[in-house]
Amino acid sequence: MKRGAASPGNQNFSVAAFGTLLLVSCSTPTAHAHGSEAHDTPASSLLSQWTPNLWVIAAILISSLLYGAGQRALLRRSRGLRARLRLECTAFVVAQLSLALALLSPVDHLSDLMFSAHMFQHELLMLVAAPLWVLARPLQIYVWALPARLQQTVWHLVRAPGARRVSRILTNPWLTLGIHGLVRWLWHAPLLFEAALRNEWLHGAQHGMFFATALLFWWSIVQGRYGRLGYGVSVLFVFATAMHTGALGALVSLATSAWYPLYIERGRVLSIDAVWDQHVAGMIMWVGAGLVLMIIGLALLSAWLGEAHRRARRGTVAALVRENQARTEEVAR
Q: What is the mean pLDDT of each run of 10 residues along the chain (333 residues)?
């Protein structure tokens, strides 16, 4: 297999991503059971109030234990992977901490009172936790934590023709770009956003869809079908995401009235002006998310240039070897 090309394992494991998405969807609804009571909590206690959501805690702990077991199994098989696994483990740890910060920390409670805190929570899920999760390749690592016989069954399933066809659909960056963008815009419509604030299950669905579509988007451009040589094209998809999220952020930030009247009522607990809070939320999406996307785009561009340079060097070396072989054969004759 050519170096830089995406392996079938990378492609087909986008199918297994649905297991993770279901896990997140099951975890997030109860995380917002406090939605109706947060605005009755004294403001002084909000900054130290964590969300004791057992579903989220269990999901983070179980996935972390599986990841650690998978990494140990891989290290026993090949010590040469140590450096790569260390980097992936770092990405996984930061991703898990980001999920905990978004769903368990005081940010979760503040998001019921402040639109800006809610926006920060969403960007943590979509622009920090999701891409780092993809870089950590947890789905592949999890398989190595399984018994040998079960490993073979999983590999057989994900390499089946049907799974490959589904994988090619799920790793189509045009499709994931459109779905992720549509989900982001639709959930910020006032009717849907306020409905999510009032209903814990809708709120969980909102967060689940944000994280799920973000995972698919980042998977398609980082671990997708084109491998590292596709990173150059991936920069364009990241740029497109920055453009449409920046446009939405600008609309939110420059609005002269509150989009979500519920935050006017709830914001009184903290004596916060809802319009000012909305301006801050818009800037988080417009400027903050834009900077993160720019950094990710530059990292992808650097990886693409590095891979192109390595391929050019290998091509040059191969050409020199062939030339030397030709000269040797000519001298021998």
A: 41 41 45 49 64 88 92 82 86 95 91 94 96 90 87 84 81 90 96 93 93 93 64 84 95 94 89 93 95 90 75 56 52 51
Cβ 230 vs Cβ 224: under 8 Å: yes
Global confidence as pTM: 0.79
Letter string b/e over residues 51-75, b meaning 16 or more CB atoms within 10 A of that residue's CB: bebebbeebbeebeebbeebbebbe
Instruction: Tell me how far apart the alpha carbons of residues 176 and 286 are, in angstroms, rounded to a whole number.
Output: 21
The percent helix, strand, coil of the chain (3-state, each to 5) is: 85, 0, 15
φ and ψ at 245, to 5 degrees?
A: -70, -35
CA 143 to mean position of chain CA atoms: 20
R_g of the chain computed on alpha carbons: 23
